[in-house]
TrEMBL record:
<dbReference type="InterPro" id="IPR036047">
    <property type="entry name" value="F-box-like_dom_sf"/>
</dbReference>
<dbReference type="InterPro" id="IPR018066">
    <property type="entry name" value="Tubby_C_CS"/>
</dbReference>
<protein>
    <recommendedName>
        <fullName>Tubby-like F-box protein</fullName>
    </recommendedName>
</protein>
<feature type="region of interest" description="Disordered">
    <location>
        <begin position="192"/>
        <end position="213"/>
    </location>
</feature>
<dbReference type="Pfam" id="PF01167">
    <property type="entry name" value="Tub"/>
</dbReference>
<feature type="compositionally biased region" description="Low complexity">
    <location>
        <begin position="250"/>
        <end position="268"/>
    </location>
</feature>
<feature type="domain" description="F-box">
    <location>
        <begin position="42"/>
        <end position="85"/>
    </location>
</feature>
<feature type="region of interest" description="Disordered">
    <location>
        <begin position="250"/>
        <end position="270"/>
    </location>
</feature>
<dbReference type="Pfam" id="PF00646">
    <property type="entry name" value="F-box"/>
</dbReference>
<dbReference type="InterPro" id="IPR025659">
    <property type="entry name" value="Tubby-like_C"/>
</dbReference>
<comment type="similarity">
    <text>Belongs to the TUB family.</text>
</comment>
<dbReference type="GO" id="GO:0006355">
    <property type="term" value="P:regulation of DNA-templated transcription"/>
</dbReference>
<feature type="domain" description="Tubby C-terminal">
    <location>
        <begin position="103"/>
        <end position="368"/>
    </location>
</feature>
<dbReference type="InterPro" id="IPR000007">
    <property type="entry name" value="Tubby_C"/>
</dbReference>
<dbReference type="InterPro" id="IPR001810">
    <property type="entry name" value="F-box_dom"/>
</dbReference>
<feature type="region of interest" description="Disordered">
    <location>
        <begin position="16"/>
        <end position="35"/>
    </location>
</feature>
Amino acid sequence: MSLRNVFRSRKFSRSFKVTTPSDPSSAGERSSGEESIHCNAWSNMLPELLGEIIRRVEVTEEQWPHRQNVVACACVCKRWRDITRQIVRSHSHKGTITFPSCLKQPGPRDLPHQCLIKRNKKTSTFYLYLALTPSFTDKGKFLLAGRRYRCGTHTEYIISLDADDLSQGSNAYVGKLSSDFLGTNFMIYDSKPPHSGAKPSSGRTSRRFTSKQISPEVPAGNFEVGQVFYKFNLLKSRGPRRMVCSLKCPISSSSSSSSGESSDSISPDGHKMYNREHHYSILKNKAPRWHENLQCWCLNFHGRVTIASVKNFQLVATVDQSQPGGKGDEEMVLLQFGKIGDDTFTMDYRQPLSAFQAFAICLSSFGTKLACE
């Protein structure tokens, strides 16, 4: 049986066999001892062999659903989980998505991740899926969910790992998007510190509500990681919305190693803690061209957008603030978002954006902005 079939088979998931003792009074003790013996047999595997097994599984399966085999490796025991995390992090420059922490790491450099956003108007809920095939009808793998709430004079989008639990008091809470009164200025908040020494944002809109569900290990505040600003269009000139995004983007492991920067530290829960400040990226919407025959503004979405909408946009880099006077590539699309159905949209992103940041930016596009259109 091949290694791939081993991880997919029931034998792998049920390899910790427990023998039921004849004496019922000692069943619990003996069962635990038997399970411990089998667990030790797996965890005591030679580190060179164990590392080679997990490394081969990781490098040969870059996309879902095959990535579930990498997750299966991490589920065997704590030792397997630690080694799996190390190997996945060492290849994080590929932008692969395996664990929840990968949703806050930079996307791929070459080919963008193609995603779908499903909208439920009745519940004001949005669901992000990683597309597994080029087909628009394929639902894909669930990544994140966001729900819109009206909070006094402003609006908030709570982003969660759980499609059914979208509250700031949940352990699945990963961050939020908060708007101003006009819905033209948005702040992106991360639930966890983006780097060592980061301080939570002050202010009523950035604090997490108290809840008994929150684990003591979960920070009590929100950490600002970006801003989305829609420019006013008071003269009602023709054209799509104009937007500017200022983001704190994590530096990919590939660029860090090549530049000789210090390695990143890892928190006890596996969250990546960056030892230095994030790289600041400023993005703006790519200017469309006017099509004389169609009498409309056009952008080339390469077949990924099929319905014209004021919500559609493409973002490109403008200025690299890590280098004085540095210019961004205004032809390379880092994030594009567009409509393909009444309640279905595409979202394609790449470095330096993470899935969490890209999703938050796209959420800001929903809703009417009278002063910007």
